[in-house]
Specification:
Shape: globular
Order of helices and strands: EEHEHEEHHHHHHHHHH
Number of helices: 12
Structural class: alpha/beta
Distance between the termini: 49 Å
Helix content: 40-55%
Number of strands: 5
Strand order of the largest sheet: 1-2-3-5-4
Bound molecules: zinc ion
Radius of gyration: 18 Å
Strand content: 5-15%
Length: 276
């Protein structure tokens, strides 16, 4: 990792670095990160926070571990987010807009403007990344991969609901609209192959994340913080197989367990019904 040329931003309980000209944006992201850390620490406990990097495209490859500029991600020694709007979000929006019906498109414009600025959603994702720090025990595998993403989305949804409820529409509209549209055009749809969705422009991967966000919202509404505590607790223990994980989800909310068994289904529980 090469932090030469990056600017440190002081005043946070964790190190923050940004690219030239990005201090204001870095402070905004870091403030949300600090709020999320305080919330997560209360709900499930959190290890020490690694440095936060808010990077422009020229500095991305020095620190990021994914080549997709602006795709937020976390490792035990770094949290990395984009300083500028990420081109891959435009690819996501382009694909989504091509498949939603008029009502869905209107909802997107109402919340994200016209043209659609999905940055209003993406800015919330630092809460997802920080939740990943709670569940780093399992070896990488097909079940651990999607469960880790579900847990991170549960942390994101819980954080927004409890700490920044005024952001709820910005968080939920994009994934609800996407998942109420047909899904058969996505090349990768099997949950066990979620990671493969990262190939290409990243929009297929984001579709998986949106589906897990639908389920995270549902889980938070039925079980609240208990859902996050149980799932983080499971991921801090010995690795579980698919059936054991689905059984745990059944105990929290049988509809969510069923949605995982039926994935991707059409549409999953918790999706908006037409005209509701
Ligand atoms: Zn994630």
């Amino acid at each position: 990792m090469d932090v030469q040329g990056l600017t440190p931003v002081a005043g946070f309980p964790f190190p923050v670095f940004t690219s030239a000209g990005g201090a204001e944006r870095a402070r905004m992201v870091a403030e949300r990160a600090a709020r999320t850390i305080a919330w997560l620490d209360r709900v499930v406990g959190l290890p020490e926070t690694p440095p936060l990097f808010v990077l422009g495209p020229d500095d991305w490859d020095k620190v990021a571990t994914t080549p997709l500029y602006g795709m937020p991600h976390v490792e035990t020694d770094r949290i990395v987010v984009g300083q500028q709007p990420a081109p891959f979000w435009n690819a996501v929006i382009g694909t989504v807009v091509g498949h939603v019906e008029g009502g869905g498109l209107r909802r997107l414009h109402d919340v994200y403007g016209n043209p659609i600025d999905i940055g209003l959603f993406a800015d919330l994702l630092v809460a997802h990344e920080l939740t990943h720090l709670t569940d780093r025990e399992w070896a990488p595998g097909p079940v651990g991969f999607w469960l880790g993403e579900l847990v991170a989305n549960l942390g994101l949804h819980g954080y927004v609901t409890e700490v920044e409820p005024e952001q709820t529409m910005r968080l939920t509209t994009i994934f609800e609209v996407t998942w109420s549209a047909p899904n058969d055009h996505w090349p990768v749809r099997d949950l066990a192959h979620m990671e493969k969705g990262l190939e290409g422009d990243g929009s297929n991967y984001v579709w998986f994340e949106f589906g897990l966000l639908v389920l995270a919202k549902r889980l938070w509404e039925t079980a609240g913080a208990k859902a996050l505590q149980r799932l983080v607790g499971a991921m801090r223990g010995p690795e579980l197989g698919f059936d054991e994980v689905v059984k745990l989800l059944d105990e929290l909310d049988p509809a969510v367990g069923q949605a995982i068994r039926n994935w991707p289904g059409s549409p999953p529980p918790g999706s908006p019904r037409p005209n509701s």
